[in-house]
Amino acid sequence: MMIIKALIQDDGCCVVHYATVSREWQTIVEQKIFGRLKLTPSRFASFAKITHRQRTLVKYIWLCIELHVYDCSQIKELGNDRWHKANIDVIGKAIWGLFGILSTWGPSESLVLDISVHSPSDPQHYFKQLQFGSDAIPEANNAQGTIISHNSCHGWVKFQQVILPSEEAIEDAIDSYFWYFQDIEMTGDFWRGLPEVTAVTGFLLRRQTRRRWEPETLRAILGRLPRLQEFYYEPWREWSRADQQDTDEQTQLIFKLLTFRQLKRMVLFEDFNDCYGAVFQEFLDDSDIEPVRTADVALSEALAEASLDFQQLSASFIVDARWFLRAPQPTWVWNQLISLVLTSRL
After folding, report:
1. Which of 103, 137, 307, 323 has the fewest Cβ atoms within 10 angstroms?
2. Cα–Cα distance, 60 to 136 (Å, whole number)
3. 163 vs 143: CA distance, rounded Å
4. Which residues of 179-214 are buried (b: 16+ CB within 10 A; e: fewer)?
5. Sheet holding 160-161, edge to edge
6. Which long-range contacts (CB under 8 A, 24 or more apart) does 238-246 make?
């Protein structure tokens, strides 16, 4: 037994053949194989066939949604309706496909669903430093490839980005990559009939997905996960004050939805790139520029109310500790809270 346990610790070792050695080895090997799965829509058919016994071994599913590829000549087109609708169709079919399969599973003790969205072409242009893999599946990051050492037309010299994208490149590339094309938005009839999934107890949306999830879309997905106990959400900050205010208002609705759930742990981290943010300021009115994030008071209060039954809460940059701690009403009691991590602007 010590031999097979040592073998499965090596991420580069293919252990599937060792399952035939004995029943004991088979059990250990299957725990390794099925414990953490990376899924793409092309693998849904085989995934749907795994047995009930194998389902109980699955603890983590990474749904890796790959959008259409593109080249430099197509970057200017990424923000138009044709590209947007084509990629939204890819995302929609992937979510529906996986939820359809998982809806046939019964409640599980622990199952984390991780959803990411990217195009294989994303790191091939100006954004070669970006990674899209999952920390839970180490080999996934190895498959991302290495940064091209020299590509002067995209501002890369000796593995470093020495020149930020020009104004034209910002308009053609980042404006599509981070601004219009980023919004994963599906509303109305799309969500009617989306299967309910009771097997999922944890939901993870990492910041490695550089496109933002529209809060309304996210709220609809969360509404189909009735047994959710853990939620990890790492959104990207908006570039303008007006867009951030709108997003904060919509995010309040997410927190209110979670108030009535059995959620026990929430981890929030709002990410931001100061360099790209500074470039975007050239295209904004002075009144719409916000170099330093000002946390929304109402959003902080909404999170405070939603967290009353939490055991753990970590919220970085998305809310302010001052407003969170001033929000409690006389009847509010955190009976189960054992860990609280908040940030505040100095």
Report:
1. 103
2. 8
3. 27
4. bebbebbbeeeebeebeebbbbbbbbbbebbbbbbb
5. 150-151, 156-157, 160-161
6. 238/212, 239/178, 239/179, 239/276, 239/277, 239/280, 239/284, 240/280, 240/284, 240/288, 240/289, 240/290, 241/287, 241/288, 241/289, 241/290, 242/288, 244/290, 244/293, 245/296
Q: Say what the pLDDT of residue 101 is.
A: 96
**Residue 158, Ramachandran bin (φ over 0: left; ψ between -120 and 50: alpha; else beta):** left
Three-state SS at 107:
coil
Give the chain's residues under pLDDT 70.
1-32, 71-81, 123-159, 161-189, 192, 210, 275-287, 291
Q: How far is CA 236 from the centre of its chain?
A: 10
pLDDT of residue 277: 66
| CA–CA dist 163, 64 (Å, integer) | 31
Length in residues, the chain:
346
CB atoms inside a 10 Å sphere around CB 56: 14
For residue 227, how many other CB atoms are within 10 A of its CB?
17
- Maximum pairwise Cα distance, the chain: 70
295 vs 328: CA distance, rounded Å:
17
pLDDT for the residue numbered 166: 47
Q: Report the distance separating Cα 148 and Cα 129, nearest Å.
A: 9
Per-state percent for the chain, helix, strand, coil, to nearest 5: 45, 15, 40
